Amino acid sequence: MPKINIERVAGMNICYHLFTTEYFLDSLCRLGMKSVEFWGGYPHQFISEKSYPPVKTIRRMIEERGLNLICYTPEQIQYYYNIAAREDDIREDSVEHFRRCIYAAAEMGAPKMLMTCGWGYQDEDREEAWKRSRESLHNLGEYAGKMGIILALENLQQVESNLIYTLPQLKKMLDELQCPAFKAIVDTVPMHLAGETMKDYIEAFGDDLVHTHLVDGNPTGHLAWGEGELPLDEDVQTLCDLSYKGTMSFEVCGGNNFDPESEMKKSFTRIGPYLG
């Protein structure tokens, strides 16, 4: 059976938000993990006109521990940024924010940055919000290309966005963008909520599927592997069988925030049999 290189599997700091960045990085080392997907949100890192802490400090902290940064993921759901906003000032401010994030990703040495599509009002023409999102994404894609950063566009849950929450919608946006900087990412929670499979995503995107969020749910929740009801063993087996070449991480947002290391350990232990 094909195996997954351990360096393609990352821990993510969003569930460590009650702990310091140093604790998070040391925790991954204690667990034997080799790679990081770094969440850009308070208090660990937030990109603004004056980012704190400086991105080069984060890069040094990661490199000092011999860890590999595989993706930078600025917070996009909890904060007010919305690249599809009808209000010009909100939309323009959001695009400018993510331009700063792309620059930060390059400064940190990340090969890719996660992006989402924003959302439109429920009582407006969805197509108008779609056009605004596409225009914003195109703007960001051109800048990312100049900076040498891949933008991994993620599927969301329908409660998070009314624009991209299924595979066909994700593919439609990428096809319309026709931008080489954009690739696809799949999150297992919205994937299963939509009745889709990992095989569907690999067949649709091939090597352009560059990242996967492996999270459990009931059926929602972004839980540690084994804490929910989703068939993650089947998902990872499919990734192995179909020679998936991208990276993956545990975007655990639920569970015990007072003991995030135990939450991360659950997922990392479960993927152990698939690692080579």
TrEMBL record:
Residues 30-267 form the Xylose isomerase-like TIM barrel domain. Pfam families: AP_endonuc_2 (PF01261). It comes from the Bacteria. InterPro entries: IolE/XylAMocC-like, Xyl_isomerase-like_sf, Xyl_isomerase-like_TIM-brl. This is Protein FrlC. The lineage of its organism: Bacteria, Bacillati, Bacillota, Clostridia, Eubacteriales.
